[in-house]
Amino acid sequence: MTRGSLTSHLVVRRPNGFVLDIELDIAPGTTVALLGPNGAGKSTTVDVLGGIVPLDDGQIMLDETILDNRSTDTFLPPENRNIGIVFQDYLLFDHLSVRDNVAFAPRVARRSAADIESTTRHWLDLLDLTTLADRSPAELSGGQAQRVALARALASEPKLLLLDEPLAALDIETRSRLRRGLAEHLSHFAGPRLFITHDPTDAFLLADEVAILEDGKITQRGTPEELRLAPATSYAAALAGLNLLSGTNAAGTLDLDDYARPLSTANTQVDGPVLITIHPNAIALHQTQPDGSPRNTWHTKIRSLEPLGDITRVVLDLPLPLSVDVTPGAVTALALAPGEPIWASVKATEIHINPQ
User: Fold this and answer.
1) What pLDDT was estimated at residue 177?
2) Rounded CA gap, 227 and 208, in Å?
3) CA dihedral sign of residues 145, 147, 148, 150
4) CA atoms within 13 A on the CB side of 72
5) Which residue among 108, 115, 116, 217 is the one 20 to 30 A from 244 at the CA level?
6) DSSP class of residue 136?
7) Quick one: pLDDT at residue 293?
């Protein structure tokens, strides 16, 4: 069944002075990630879309139905909004089996016994839960519980799927595995999908578009690639994986504000305070000091590694804690591991200068 779009202008004013004021439109079959730090307004967005908190101004329209409009005194309570929500902690019903958790929404909707059984069987099969149908939530792994929560949300036949930090409680290894499965499962839902997260990796790998939320405002929206290539704010640059540093450039020598290791740049035209960006794939790693004495070479240790599909994100330790993207093959060839020593280098031409 084809689902309609979400069209909304959300304005909420908190007693502490915080104001959420965003326009959030999502087309059917599109996953939008709302990405922002703690306190940016992500939880408030969930609350107003879900009907927990009313708007102070603006409007929410889903599939041509107005859910909330202060000026016309329109407000649909949560149970009438037809929104499927997957929470961070999944919030499965502990006293119900997997089958009954999935059947909960169609049963509450008083659908026929045959319809309830058909719908439940459909989502159990589609999300590979049939063999787990008689288990209780306490007997499930984190990945299995996530699939049950998603199946329960989809069994309600929602017009909007809202995922509120569904991977946040998982460790890195489990998150990487479940992220791949979640991307596939989302494709089964034809309506608009909103993915709330503070993790850029989740956003960039799962979403068709990313909206950056900072202090109650959307500061940038675009595809993951657009955000990587042209971040609009310092926060967006950091999320995109770009290394963002500040310092003072003078005749091609950059003295950094926070680190004692200076860098050579190819820009001799800009003098004074600057922001610089270095793409994580522009930094090279070497087991031994590289030949040719590159202008920017330093010895360091590896702080951490995180597999991200066809790349691995390597975070270096002092003197420059930069992020480096390498292939899984390079991880093996260079014997990369946390705590191991490594040489790093970056060409002066790969250090991009932005005057402040």
Assistant:
1) 64
2) 12
3) positive
4) 11
5) 217
6) -
7) 58
Residues 92/152, Cβ–Cβ less than 8 Å? yes
Give the number of other Cβ atoms within 10 Å of residue 253's Cβ. 14
Give 275 or 6, the one with higher predicted confidence: 6
Name the pTM for this structure: 0.69
Closest by CA position to 10, among listed 64, 63, 46: 46
Residue 18 phi, psi (nearest 5): -70, 135
pLDDT of residue 313: 86
Q: Which single residue is written with the structure tokens 């994580």?
A: 280
Per-residue pLDDT tens for 136-170?
999 998 888 888 988 898 888 899 999 988 777 66
Structural domains of the chain sorted by starting position, each given as residue range(s) with its CATH number in brackets:
6-239 (3.40.50.300), 243-355 (2.40.50.100)
Q: Which tokens in the block code for residue 325?
A: 């993207």
Angle at 256 between CA 254 and CA 262, to 5 degrees: 55
CA-CA distance, 174 to 56, in Å (whole number)? 39
Q: 119: buried, middle or exposed (CB in 10 Å: 19+, 13-18, 0-12)? A: buried
Find the mean pLDDT for residues 188-215. 90
**CA of 44: how far to CAs of 8, 12, 222, in Å?**
14, 8, 22
CA distances from 10 to 80, 210, 213 (A): 19, 17, 13
Predicted pLDDT at 1: 38
pLDDT tens-digit series, residues 285-304:
999 998 865 679 999 999 99
For residue 54, count other CB atoms closer than 10 A to its CB.
12
One-letter amino acid of 287: Q
DSSP codes, 51-62: TSS--SEEEEEE
d(CA 302, CA 279): 18
